[in-house]
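Objective 1.3, modelling of assemblies. Example input:
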Amino acid sequence: MSDDIGATAQKPRYGAPLASLSPSQIAAIRSLPSNRDVKPPVIHERRPVGNFVSDAYWSRERETIFRNKPVAVIPSAALPDPGSVLAHDGYGIPLLITRDRHGTARIFLNACTHKGAMLVEDCAVKKWSTVSCPFHAWTFGLDGRLIGVPREETLCDFDKKSRPLAELPCHETGGIIWGILNPRADADFSLVSDQITDDLTHLGLTSWTRYGYRRFEVDANWKLVMEPFLEGYHVQRLHINSIGPQGLDFFDDIVPLVERFGSHIRQISGRGKYQPDVLDDPAVNIRSVVTIVYNLFPNTVVITSPYYISVMILMPTATGKTNVDYYMLTETAPDNPKAEELYARSFAVIQDVFGNEDFKASETCQRGLETGAIPDVIYTGMEEAIPRFYEGIEAIMDEALEAAE
Ligand SMILES: [Fe+2]
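Predicted structure (C-alpha cells):
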C-alpha cells in the first residue's frame, strides 16, 4: 500500500527481520518458492447459496459458533491501559469491556443489575476505576462487583454481592481479548491454540499500539465479507487501479501457502516478484517481502503490511448484515511528521480499498445470491483457502448437530 512509498525514509527504524517471527512462521516462509514457480491447485469446491442467504443457516451459526465458541471482541491494543472501560456494541449485544488496575481484562453485559439500564452508552475508552449507572447511580467495580447503591437502607434484606454485573467468559491471549457471548457458556477457549497465540505474539499484536479504528456496516453475510481475505485471486482484478497492476502493484497473481491450524487458517505469500534469495539479506524487512494473513476462527482477519498490521473483526448481526471493526496497529505511535504522514496515508488507502472495493463486492454478491441466479458458489484453485476455512467451521457445526441428535 502507500506504506511502501514511505518505506525508504522509515525502513531502518520500522523494519522487522525474519528472525523476529515465530519458528513456525520462519519455517513456512523458508519453504516458499519464487512466485514464478508457485503452482495453484486444481480443485472442485462448491458451497450452497443457502449458507449465505438462509436465516435458518445463520441461526445455526449464531447459536453454535457466535454464542458458544470464542470470538475476538477487540484487539488488546484497543484497551491498553489498566483502569479503563470500553462499551462495545458490534455484535448487537451491549457489552462492557474493562481492564482493572492489575491489567486483567473482563467482559460484562452492559446492563445495570438494578433494572437493566445501559451503563455506558458511547463506545470511547474511559479511564475510570468504577462504572456508575446514569439512571440511579448504582456503581460497580471493574471486576463487576456492585459497590454502591444510593439509599441502600430503603432495600429490605439486600446484599450487594447478589447483584454483580453479568460476566461473560473472557480470555486475553495473542493480543486479542476473546469472549464467549453467552454468560451461561463454559469458559472453553481451547479453540484459541498456543500455536495461534505464539504466531500473533511474534507479529507484535501483544505489544503494538492502536493507530486507527473504523467501523464499517456491510450489507452482506459475514462469510461473504471474509472471503476476499481468503484469496488473492481478486486483487489483480477488483483492485486493478488501487493496489493492483494499474495502481500500486504490490502483489503477484499467485496463491499463498495455505495452512490450517485447528479451525484457523494461515496464508503466506511473497510480495511483488518474490524470490527466496531476499531472505539472505539480514537487513531485509520481512514484512516488505512477504504478506502473512490469519483468518482466525471464526470471524477475524489479521494482515501484515510493511509497517502496520490490520486487524478486522467481522461481527454478524443478521443473515445479510455485518459490522466490521477495522483496527490499524503500528509498532509505536507516530512520533515524527514522516511517520504520521506514512500511517495516515496507509490508513486512508486501506479504508478506501476495503470499504469501497472489498466490502462493496461482498454486498453485490449478497444481492446476487439472494436473487436465486445460481445454485451454488464455485471456488477456483486460486481460492483454495476459502473451502479450507469453511471445513473448520463445518466441522464445528456438524459436531454440534451430532451432539443435539
Ligand atoms: Fe481485496
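The chain has two domains: 2-60+195-404, 74-179.
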